[in-house]
Specification:
By secondary structure, this protein is an all-alpha fold. It has one domain. It has 20 helices and two strands. Strands 1-2 form a two-stranded antiparallel sheet. A hairpin with a 6-residue loop joins β1 and β2. The radius of gyration is 22 Å and the shape is globular. The relative contact order is 0.18.
Length: 494
């Protein structure tokens, strides 16, 4: 039996909580990802005992994933890619003076989703891991296409605009070096584009710089405070009343996040988009999504933290990282003398139980630390908009440059901001473009590798039960609503 006092003493708790505060700072800074936060904290833990070091690593990943929701809610700038889906409704709630409720939902649902993800890790890790290993290039192709089909759901009123926006994102994802042939594509002699268009500067520009441009276009509002309405946090009872009302959304999104997180390479960002799309599709009031809907905040934030727990399933059971964060953590485990794989459950069972305990307690610690981060960030945003937007531009430039230490990414960020500004004026949604940019390479690479493996036989993409299930889900995404309306018209004539 694992002795929990090993991790609940001051020598472990103090660095653990400090690392979570560090994760808040990194996660709330646009462009600085949770992966970066974990990578920066690992060297600090080198000379620490394994459980103390892992508590810092797991703590920083949990807080950084959540912290991305703070600027997403206040400023419409996702702090991390996993928070991009949360922008759609949380910022609208802020515009209506409801930022306190939006962020309270973020904190509690992140913690609840994370706990569900950890419980799934503890009880059904071997089952989900075996399922995840059944995914080959053919299944990943359809999973990515299913993710892209969310663009039809994300767009308010006009699915065609969402599809066009996503298509533009996919086209941008083809810029750079062709991984199959090694040749350059669409770089027009600009070698800075050889590595492709990074979605992080595009995301910062689309959601952040475009908002600054919109504010500049209305100079009479620049003297107002950055956050409209009250920023007061509602009582916990009120927040839990909302969560209880949408309990099925929380549970469904957390389970979907865990399953998607367990698929190697999928990650929290894809999990949040898929969960948001599913929540909208299954909602009784889908028209409210994108207008400041509570479900639109609950679904992605419940999923992204759950995906972190899901990513540990293939990592621990098979030594296969579920995402970039667990890839770094696996390296840290090896540094501590732990070898992930099936034998770790027998050879180092106490250590595995310690990891489970750390992961679960990190979600509990996320609640008080998350509210500290919200209150600190809120003090900054009490300043006038003209001051805050200067800081937004500064952080946008730093965040875009820091990913690859490349000034070209700053130019991409500014260009994306201008494009996002005009897309907003033309009522073309920006979110599907980001989704297309994220998933474009996944679609193309898995399709091409699948075709090479099958010798050009397209039937390999449809003759598997998982592929068939994903195809049905894609079909339902586009056509279930028209079929339902047609059936209702036929069965219940006017």
């Amino acid at each position: 039996m694992f002795d929990v006092t090993q991790i609940l003493n001051l020598s472990v708790l103090v660095p653990w909580m400090l690392s979570m505060v560090f994760g808040l700072i990194i996660g709330a800074t646009p462009g600085l990802t949770a992966t970066m936060a974990v990578a920066l904290i690992v060297p600090v833990t080198y000379y620490m005992p394994p459980l103390a070091g892992l508590s810092m690593v797991l703590g920083v990943s949990a807080s950084a994933i959540f912290a991305g929701d703070i600027p997403a809610t206040y400023l419409r700038i996702p702090g991390t890619p996993a928070s991009a889906a949360a922008v759609l409704d949380s910022y609208e709630m802020t515009k209506r003076g409801n930022s306190g409720l939006a962020l309270s939902l973020d904190v509690y649902c992140s913690a609840i989703g994370g706990m569900i993800g950890v419980l799934c890790l503890i009880f059904i890790a071997p089952i989900l891991a075996r399922f995840a290993l059944r995914f080959t290039h053919f299944q990943y192709f359809w999973l990515a296409v299913f993710g892209l089909s969310m663009s039809a759901i994300l767009c308010q009123g006009n699915a065609l605009m969402g599809i066009l926006s996503a298509t533009l994102g996919v086209l941008l994802s083809t810029v750079g070096t062709d991984l199959t042939s090694g040749s350059y594509r669409f770089i027009y002699g600009i070698m800075d584009l050889a590595d492709g268009v990074s979605f992080i500067p595009v995301m910062i520009g689309m959601f952040g710089v475009s908002e600054v441009l919109k504010a500049v276009a209305q100079p009479e509002q620049l003297s107002a405070t950055a956050i409209p309405g009250s920023t007061k946090l509602p009582p916990a009872r009120e927040v839990f009343t909302v969560i209880w009302r949408h309990k099925l959304t929380v549970l469904r999104s957390a389970i979907m996040g865990t399953v998607v997180g367990a698929l190697p390479g999928a990650g929290a960002d894809i999990a949040s988009w898929v969960s948001y799309g599913a929540a909208k599709k299954l909602s009784k009031m889908p028209g409210q999504f994108g207008q400041g809907c509570e479900e639109g905040v609950i679904a992605p934030t419940s999923a992204n933290n759950a995906a972190v727990g899901g990513a540990w399933i293939p990592a621990l059971v098979f030594g296969i990282p579920g995402d970039s964060i667990t890839a770094i953590v696996l390296g840290a485990m090896i540094m501590y003398g732990l070898q992930p794989g099936p034998m770790i459950f027998q050879a180092r069972s106490e250590m595995v139980k310690g990891i489970f305990a750390i992961a679960f307690i990190s979600q509990i610690l996320l609640i008080p630390i998350g509210f500290i981060g919200i209150k600190l960030f809120r003090q900054i945003l009490r300043m006038p908009k003209n001051v805050v937007f200067v800081l937004v531009l500064l952080f946008s430039v730093v965040g875009s440059y820091s990913m690859r230490n490349n000034y070209w990414d700053v130019g991409i960020m500014l260009a994306a901001g201008i494009l996002g500004f005009f897309m907003d004026r033309l009522n073309v949604p920006q979110a599907p473009l980001i989704l297309g940019l994220i998933l474009g390479n996944m679609v193309e690479n898995n399709f091409r590798i699948g075709m090479l493996k099958s010798g050009g036989d397209y039937t390999w993409f449809v003759n598997d039960p998982i592929c068939a299930t994903l195809i049905v889900l894609i079909f339902m995404t586009f056509f279930s609503a028209p079929i339902y309306r047609l059936g209702k018209k036929l069965l219940i004539p006017n």
